[in-house]
Structures are given as structure tokens and as C-alpha cells.
Design a protein that fits this description.
This protein is an alpha/beta fold. Helix content is 39%, strand content 16%. It contains twelve helices and eight strands. It is globular. It binds iron/sulfur cluster.
């Protein structure tokens, strides 16, 4: 029996299946046995990994974190942002099941492309819906010295759940960068925009700072929905307090997801909204930066230092 297979199976399972001639890549063998073994024997498979429910993989991402990135799009999201351009990731149905080791195999096929300060990013959908899978994947990345980036809305964060927080602590150990998409700084508007409150989302940056995880803030500017200067300034004032803030990505609303809504038969609330003009984007980003600056001036006057490590 090949070593790869021997490694996967306990003696009981080998006795059960009675096969001696089967070979192939480990992820394929695992998938085969997961499908064919009855539940009791399946549990005896050795080194069983968490399964990720994946929408797609992209080998050369350039907008999903620093450098060139291998991007994992996961399925599942409890938010319903009006401007979401990936509504096809909302539901778990239609996912492709993949193990962390399979994803690492795919990453290493193009290893050299990520040497420019790149790495692996998980986005979605909402990656933290599958936190157990995410932990295993990022742990494998760290073993291989791969930079890890999590692109999240923060909606799954819940500091009141002690069991869950143990998982977040494990994840923080192996996460280099979190790109936190704050959809709206005001809770009422957040509820209207995403059908979920932002209460716990706004607690997430405090946790990331405590854990020394670098953070980029992303904010999509949608005409008529998230472009009010008062809230943009408030957003800047809020994020200005965090010492782990490394960048601000103000992103223009675009309507490239429109077609997907038509295909999925979902009503698109922004059908009459025009994409954001680049000139306006620059002005709006400046308002956020003004808020950051103001907060930092106040904190520096109170004795805090914002020197980068
Ligand atoms: S959090 Fe992201 S994936 Fe989920 S609905 Fe909003 S934009 Fe779409």
C-alpha cells in the first residue's frame, strides 16, 4: 500500500476496506474515502482536515492585499449588502469542498509569483463563517512561511462567546493582516445597508489591536448611501485611534455585479445608482483622512505615540 494512503487510514479502516492497490494525490484519496466510507469508519481516517466550502480560487489577485496573491473565495455570508457584487457567494449551495492541504498544493504551484511581498488571501462571502477551516488553512500557511490576509466584514465576531473567542485567539496567531470592510459607521444605516447591525463589527478592531494584527480598513463609497461627509468623517475619527491601522482603502461603488443579480433573480436595489466618479472618490477619501488626522492629533496631545513598529 502506498505511503500516502497508509498515512491517511487507521488499521481498522484498512481492514474494513481491504484495499491494497490505490494511489493518487492525498486530497483526492481523502475525498474518495470521505464519500465511500460509512460514517463510523470515516471517523477513523487519520489526520482528517476541516473542509472549506469554496466558491472559487484565483491565482493572481492584485487587489486583495499586498503584492500578488492567491485568493480563496469562500461561500456563505449572513450580510446582504445592497452593493454586494458577489451575491453568488451568499448561500452555501453550490460550494466546492476543499481541504486546506489541497489549497496549499494549488498555492505552491505558482509559488514564485507571490515572492513580491504577496501571499494568500481568504475573502468571500464571509470567511469567518468557516472559522475552523480558516484556522487550519492559515496554520498551514504559517508552516510554509506564507503571508496570510483575511478580508472580512467582521460580522461573525462576538466577544461575548468565550468558546468562539478561543478560536479567534488561535486565528490571530496565524493572521498577518486583516482587511476589515466597515460598511457604515452608523448602526441604523448599517442595518439598512446590510441587514445586520455593526455593533460587534466595531469591537473587532479593538481585538485586532490587542492581538497586534495589522489592519487595513476598507470602505465602499456608494452615491446616496455611504457618501455623507458626516459619517465619512466619523468613520475616520473612529479608526484614527487604532495603532495597528496600516492603510485605508476607499473603494468606489461600481455596478459590475448587476448581471449576477439578474441571473440569480434577486432584486438589485441599486439598479439606478451610477458608479462613483474618481474625482469624488478622492474628495470623499480626504474626508475620512481628516477624521483620522483629527483623532490622532487629539491622542498625540494626550501623550499617545503613533510611530510604526
Ligand atoms: S459582506 Fe461581502 S459578501 Fe457579504 S453581502 Fe456584504 S459585500 Fe457581499
Amino acid at each position: 500500500m502506498p505511503d500516502g494512503l497508509r498515512k491517511l487510514l487507521s488499521d481498522d479502516v484498512i481492514r474494513y476496506i481491504g484495499v491494497t492497490k490505490i494511489s493518487g494525490p492525498e486530497h483526492k484519496l481523502r475525498a474518495f474515502f470521505r464519500k465511500t466510507l460509512p460514517p463510523k469508519e470515516r471517523k477513523l481516517m487519520q489526520g482528517e482536515q476541516m473542509i472549506g466550502h469554496i466558491h472559487s480560487l484565483e491565482s493572481f489577485g492584485t487587489v486583495d492585499g499586498p503584492g500578488t496573491r492567491f485568493v480563496v473565495f469562500v461561500k456563505g455570508c449572513p450580510m446582504r449588502c445592497a452593493y454586494c457584487h458577489n451575491p453568488d457567494t451568499w448561500e452555501m449551495a453550490g460550494a466546492t469542498d476543499m481541504e486546506p492541504s489541497y489549497i496549499m498544493e494549488q498555492y505552491h504551484r505558482n509559488d514564485s509569483f507571490y515572492q513580491n511581498g504577496g501571499g494568500l488571501t481568504v475573502t468571500g462571502g464571509e470567511p469567518l463563517v468557516q472559522i475552523d477551516f480558516l484556522i487550519e488553512l492559515f496554520e498551514l500557511c504559517k508552516k510554509d512561511g506564507v503571508h496570510t490576509c483575511l478580508d472580512t466584514s467582521g460580522i461573525m465576531f462576538n466577544p461575548d462567546n468565550a468558546e468562539l473567542m478561543k478560536k479567534y485567539d488561535r486565528l490571530a496567531e496565524v493572521t498577518d493582516l486583516v482587511m476589515l470592510d466597515i460598511k457604515h459607521i452608523d448602526n441604523e444605516h448599517h442595518l439598512d445597508l446590510c441587514k445586520q447591525p455593526n455593533t460587534n463589527i466595531l469591537k473587532f478592531p479593538f481585538y485586532l489591536q490587542e492581538k497586534n494584527v495589522d489592519m487595513w480598513i476598507r470602505h465602499v463609497i456608494v452615491p446616496g448611501l455611504t457618501d455623507d461627509d458626516k459619517y465619512l468623517y466619523d468613520l475616520g475619527y473612529f479608526i484614527g485611534q487604532f495603532h495597528n491601522l496600516r492603510a485605508l482603502d476607499a473603494l468606489p461603488y461600481h455596478d459590475m455585479g448587476k448581471k449576477k443579480y439578474e441571473e440569480l433573480g434577486i432584486d438589485y436595489r441599486l439598479k439606478d445608482t451610477k458608479p462613483l466618479d474618481t474625482k469624488v472618490l478622492i474628495e470623499k477619501k480626504k474626508v475620512i483622512l481628516d477624521g483620522i488626522k483629527k483623532r490622532r492629533e487629539e491622542l498625540k496631545a494626550a501623550g499617545e505615540s503613533f510611530e510604526h513598529k
